[in-house]
Amino acid sequence: MTTSRNVIHPRDEIMQTMDRIYRYRMTTTSGGNLSIRDAAGDIWISPARVDKGNLTRRDIIRVRSDGSTDGPHPPSSEFPFHKAIYDARPDVRSVVHAHPVALVAFSICRQTPDTRLFHQAHSVCGKLGFAPYACPGSKQLGANIAASFAEGADSVILENHGVVVAGESLSDAFKRFEAFEFAGKTLIKASALGKVKLLDDQRLDQAARRSVDFDNLDPPPASATETELRRQLCDFVRRGCRQRLLISTEGSFSARVGDDAFLITPTQQDRELLGVDDFVLIDGDRREAGKLASRAAKAHQAIYRRHPHVNAIVFAHPVNATAFSVTESEFDVRTIPESYVFLRDVQRVPYGVQFGDGDQIADYVNEKTPAAILENDGVIVTGRSVLDAFDRLEVLESTAEAVINARSIGSVQAMSDDVIDELCREFDL
């Protein structure tokens, strides 16, 4: 596999990424700025005082190395600290600054969120830093931020301000920014449930060592069933990202094609941007040649082999349900009829089970228990179809959010055993 060249113009890349950040409600109309340093050393940056929800490509400003600009607006008032970061770090090609609410909360408490909640967040976010306060747009702020990046930081909390992350590309920086905010949100939600569990070095290494080994498969022409499932997976993965049930760097979705064949999301590709051809066909111990399957592929395969009724599986990281995964708090779905009918009793999977090549993960989900909490790794949901699995994922996250909200109001009251028995009779559970 070779790394493809980025042939998207900086104006388009900044415009598209800002649209995504704004759509995810990770910045405001007036807040945040993005930049790219190109191969010639010019810096392309979002403009000052232009609606972030309606940027066009012509709004993006180029600042040349001599300080002259190209574009209809002045560059962002925060341009000085972007330049200071580039001067301090020759390896950095892109910078993202914004005010996502969770990381702003940490900034005004003068704390940095611990990314050891999840192996992926810890890996993606890189080394963390904290920059002391200085007036926005000032040279001092630039000096403070650049000093943190000069010490090797990749993701920096700005005291009483927000966050800055850097990367080798804008895609890299966006994924880092998203994962950092996700970790911050999860910590805030989890703190309402109880003591947060962090991963030690041994457990982080366990996840990093995970690999997936399949022989190459030269697949036959795709059947109508396969092409339809590719379309469904593409649509629901994109919807999951936009509803914040999935994040761009983590999560996997699969659908059964045949007895021992299934389609699954690829690894190391932005989930929201997947096309129908990006999904990887796995048949037995072979995977579609030229593609890298999700590292969770063996876990998906074990579940399909054990449970013939399962036709779709999703591993995901919705914030509220994931908050339960990083605490010891019990996730009780006996809250409203829909929750119990769709999910039944949700089990908890010990950390690391999903990384194995064996079928142990298949012990935790079945027709009577279609969903489970993965310790420090989100959730797993199964279904009879792609729609069924996605619907259950939505119900799982909505239930988790309702329970967390309810705990701030009073004592959570679960439905009685008599009510559960009635639901089981009426819905043949």
TrEMBL record:
One of its GO terms (cellular component) is cytosol. GO terms for biological process: pentose catabolic process. GO terms for molecular function: L-fuculose-phosphate aldolase activity; metal ion binding. InterPro entries: Aldolase_class_II_sugar_metab, Aldolase_II/adducin_N, Aldolase_II/adducin_N_sf. SUPFAM superfamilies: AraD/HMP-PK domain-like (SSF53639). Its EC number is 4.1.2.17. This is L-fuculose phosphate aldolase. It comes from Stieleria neptunia.
